[in-house]
Amino acid sequence: MSDKFTTQAFIDAKKNNRKITMLTAYDYSMAQILDESGIDAILVGDSLAMPIQGKDSTLEVTLDEMLYHCRCVARGVKNAMLVGDMPFLTYHINPDEAVRNAGRFIQEGKANAVKLEGGTSMAAMVKAIVRAQIPVMGHIGLTPQSVNIFGGFKVQGKEESAAKALVEDALALEDAGAFAVVLEAVPEMLAKLISEKIGIPTIGIGAGKYCDGQILVVHDMLGLYSDFTPKFVKQYANLRGKMAEAVSTYVSEVRSQQFPEKQHSFTISDDVLEKLY
């Protein structure tokens, strides 16, 4: 029997109160590590704009760039569910275009599902994509593609009207057929309320402990990206420091001729060598 984590596994996990684990990945090697470590699902997020491309928002990431990284990650994944993040303006125009672009994630990116941002306003797009037999993960709260509307990366749903709107967004996504919804930068008790109101799993990122699962950007939790670390991130390692230390040692050993050593070199017979002089 396959150990592949599926959309049904998401639903079963919520029913059984088993927390769902998700991380981002953008390349083959990282995908292998996450998959072999038992992660349930991997998101190829448009968040790659920051740690991979060095940009200050996700808005410039293109569909072709996302498909490239999806393919790289897909080659390293055996059991985790692979979710492709639809970038800005690839699902906003109309349902037909949303379906066509979502289909490219499945056919070309080898993803198992897509994620898109927005609640009630995107319900028609979600419904159309699901009707095309493509699983959709929703994303509400602080949706980075709306950073210019929000006026920055801010916690969402703190006021009564905004909190009510987020509850309606979650219900609309469930009604449209989404199999899960990401809650980003949402007050913990509001995330608890939403998690109790909907039948599909909530995946929190900066939304507290009551969500049905958690997701982090892998470069944040491993300490690989230092430009900005959100409050909700817990760093489980400081690989940036470890990598810098290793590179400094390499630089020093090359300059002092300590590297390469004999075991790092190849031999040639003396007879052959003599004929070359």
Automatic annotation (TrEMBL):
The answer to whether the entry has keyword Magnesium is: yes
* UniProt entry keywords in alphabetical sequence: Cytoplasm, Magnesium, Metal-binding, Methyltransferase, Pantothenate biosynthesis, Transferase
Active-site annotation = E184
Location of the protein in the cell: Cytoplasm
Presence of the UniProt keyword Metal-binding in the record: yes
Pathway named in the protein's UniProt entry: Cofactor biosynthesis; (R)-pantothenate biosynthesis; (R)-pantoate from 3-methyl-2-oxobutanoate: step 1/2
Record-linked SUPFAM superfamilies: Phosphoenolpyruvate/pyruvate domain
User: Which reactions are catalysed by this chain?
Assistant: (6R)-5,10-methylene-5,6,7,8-tetrahydrofolate + 3-methyl-2-oxobutanoate + H2O = 2-dehydropantoate + (6S)-5,6,7,8-tetrahydrofolate
Protein EC: 2.1.2.11
Which GO MF term does the entry hold, naming one? Answer: methyltransferase activity
Q: At which positions is Mg(2+) bound? A: D46, D85, E117
Query: Which note does the record give on the cofactor?
Result: Binds 1 Mg(2+) ion per subunit.
Q: Name one GO biological process term.
A: methylation
Matching entries from Gene3D superfamilies are given as: Phosphoenolpyruvate-binding domains
* Cofactor list: Mg(2+)
Record's function text: Catalyzes the reversible reaction in which hydroxymethyl group from 5,10-methylenetetrahydrofolate is transferred onto alpha-ketoisovalerate to form ketopantoate.
What family is reported? Belongs to the PanB family.
Please describe the quaternary structure of this protein.
Homodecamer; pentamer of dimers.
Protein name listed in UniProt: 3-methyl-2-oxobutanoate hydroxymethyltransferase
Q: Which organism is it from?
A: Oxobacter pfennigii
